[in-house]
Design goal:
Keywords: Hydrolase. One of its GO terms (molecular function) is hydrolase activity. Residues 5-139 form the Nudix hydrolase domain. This is 8-oxo-dGTP pyrophosphatase MutT (NUDIX family). There is one protein chain. The chain has 148 residues and is of the alpha+beta class. The chain has a single domain (7-147), classed as Nucleoside Triphosphate Pyrophosphohydrolase, CATH 3.90.79.10. Helices cover 18% and strands 40% of the residues. The chain has two helices and seven strands, in the order βββαββββα. Strand 4 (65-79) and strand 5 (82-94) form a beta hairpin. The longest helix has 13 residues, at 47-59. The model has no long low-confidence stretch (mean pLDDT 88).
Length: 148
Amino acid sequence: MLSEEARPKVSAFVTRSDGRLLVFAHPESREAGIQVPAGGIEPGEDPAAAAVRETEEETGFTGFVVERLVDRQLLQERRRGRLERHDRWFFHLIAPASLPDRWRHGEGSDPGADDWIPFDFFWIDPDAEPLPLTPDHAAVFRRLREAT
């Protein structure tokens, strides 16, 4: 079943001064694959502000700066057994210089709580082939790299 309304979503391609891309893995759900920070746009929220907010929430750090909008696509994604339409905004963000090479952060109440979902963050070489991203994210990231 396809939901009628497209859900507004953002994805953030966060790079640092050496050009590396920030990604994360779900250590308790390896099938989720390697991802970039992403999430929903709140009602009335500016999409660029949503990209920064989602990145801060998922990483546990602040100081990200929006470089530019890379792309906007209307996509269909399978979520919990049903097709959803997403109005997906892809942004390029610049990372603060103080971010470590690797760290763990998560979403939920507290580490160890039943609702806590850990994320393992690390940086990847943007020239890696193949990029360890979903095909749609890899394609958008390649367009970002070609434009810079």
